[in-house]
Amino acid sequence: MKKKHLSLKDLASELKVSISTVSRALKNHPDISPEMTKKVQALARKRNYTPNPLAMGLLRQQTKMIGVIVPDMVTQFFSSIISGIEHVAKQRGYYIIISSSYDSFQKERECVENLLQTRVEGIIMSLSSETKNFPHLRPLIDRELPLVLFDRVALTDKVSSVVVNDRESTRKIALHFYNQGYRRIAFISGASHLQMVKERANGYWEAIREVGLPEKKEYFVECNMTQQSAAQAMMKLLRLPEPPDAVCGVSHTATFGALKAIRNGGLTIPNEIAVAGFADQFHAELVTPNLTSIHHPTFEIGREAARLFFERLENPSEMPVQVVLNTQLVPRGSSLK
Amino acid sequence: MKKKHLSLKDLASELKVSISTVSRALKNHPDISPEMTKKVQALARKRNYTPNPLAMGLLRQQTKMIGVIVPDMVTQFFSSIISGIEHVAKQRGYYIIISSSYDSFQKERECVENLLQTRVEGIIMSLSSETKNFPHLRPLIDRELPLVLFDRVALTDKVSSVVVNDRESTRKIALHFYNQGYRRIAFISGASHLQMVKERANGYWEAIREVGLPEKKEYFVECNMTQQSAAQAMMKLLRLPEPPDAVCGVSHTATFGALKAIRNGGLTIPNEIAVAGFADQFHAELVTPNLTSIHHPTFEIGREAARLFFERLENPSEMPVQVVLNTQLVPRGSSLK
DNA sequence: AGTTTCAGCACAACCCTTTGTGCAAAGGTA
DNA sequence: TACCTTTGCACAAAGGGTTGTGCTGAAACT
Q1: How close, in Å, is residue B255 to chain A by CA atoms?
Q2: Could you tell me the pTM of the whole model?
Q3: Distance (Å, rounded) from C-alpha B325 to C-alpha B168?
Q4: What is the pLDDT of residue A1?
Q5: Residues A217, A261: one domain?
Q6: Which residue range forms the structural domain that includes residue B224?
Q7: Integer-rounded Cα radius of gyration of chain A
Q8: Which of these, A267, B42, B194, B275, could form a disulfide with A272 (CB 3.0-4.6 Å)?
């Protein structure tokens, strides 16, 4: 005995008036007499009527849905951003549909296609690490569907985006190391085709130059952004004839990978070597000593991305903009001599 | 020059046939001649036609959407479960709409109402910690909409649910402590109105009795499930005339709270005191020594919940079932003498 | 050749809502 | 009284898709 959702038709037949009368009465249309309006609204409230969103969507040609694509939705970084997006979307009566690209270009492409088929009104996404070309974004751009990129961005001349000040982040860390007296500062970098990685690497070199330290290439190692790879890169650093006394990871994963390698190497932090990188408060305070880290305003990233999305939705012809959010360096035990 | 999605009507007018012909041709209906079918399908492929889901939804009276309510979507535990739900939903062509109750009964109630207005076909949820009555679930049950609860469940005689073997989890931990030679085993419990907490507490006592240790009330302390509160509870334990040599936290948060208190107290793990609790691999291996922990099959919880959901969707009259998943004790450094 | 049969397509209704237009009854004015 | 305006509602179309039924012309039958 499954009760179906009730429609205007049900209300209309119960009141023995036409559907259009009911519809107008619910909107206080002047064409409808006050008595009728009252009667209709009373019944609608009693029966707990709500308009069918599908019918509305069909009529208005809008689904009230935003597609969100992230490399992975389990990581706190992304889930927190999603939470920020959802917060704004909810306020505006929109829903989000989350898809994971699992850092695969192929999957990302499928996600975009799927979401377009679902008739989302636009997409907010962070690119997969494999994504170097953007043919799958063409349909969005050509059809002027709102598209907002965050964290891992591209095509910034055509697409609005939200990023953090990556260069400044690593610069802050390196300067912090220097101020604490560390002089052999190393950096574990990542896949260099990513804009974010380039920026962070630049920030590192900028600080090195700024304080007048020698630009030693051997203190700049690369990894593929996995914990294991970062750990190996760290071990490479430790085997140097003159190993670094401070190290900064290019990402959350790289930082903790380096941390593990250092522990395995039996070195004491922060005396023999200082560590800093990217981590949220919870993770930074879980390890001993607590990790000096760059805190990303994840919720705000999501909020801004959603804000830009609605801006474009309302004004598709505006020029794309880029919002740069500032990160925060939180010094903790791992780098305080 | 916003190109709209194209419809059957567009295809029909381009081929100068009726809409119904196009519709049938796309489905290989025998009424349509092979040549016409070929022609239509060719054009549809060329133009990249996909049916409008709103129109289909309106027609079939199904939205292909599942509402998902969690206390918080940022925590890995829940985001991983959501990921499992999404995985199954995607396979079946369904989308999920995620709402957060923020552990508030009021918000949870609003979430349910909102989702029902959106015409989701059912809801998969974990109850907020405030939820003790279930008037907001009545509409779901009365209208026989699929409802599946996980982790924090209730009304198991009317609603399908997925839980883990909580009692067994803590029992395993306590037995593991005993086998490692620990004899003064403590437990940091939580808000006792939660079924989950009761079960875990029971598992602890069960193991204590099983191995014949004295049932010492002072080794059983309570906290309100925050890190700080758990840390305070831990400190209380450490101040005992005969402090425990092993401690188990009732939850992820409680476990790490206890860990921090022990560190602050300057005790060495696992020699002076062993620690174990609930944590995923990433967090367990982040701390030193690595934390012995109960691993929850979060992805599977989501998968099972979704499976039960579709079972009920297809067969609403079946009796509710409860799936109990087993947890896994992963011994690590924090409890190995 | 006249009738039947069937292939092959068009028409119309339905799902639910909004909204422009039509229309009848009531009121007002000359 | 005859005409015009206004009130208050009904009708219909549109949005995109499916599907039962109606219609037309040609092939196959007697």
Answers
A1: 11
A2: 0.92
A3: 11
A4: 47
A5: yes
A6: 166-296
A7: 26
A8: A267
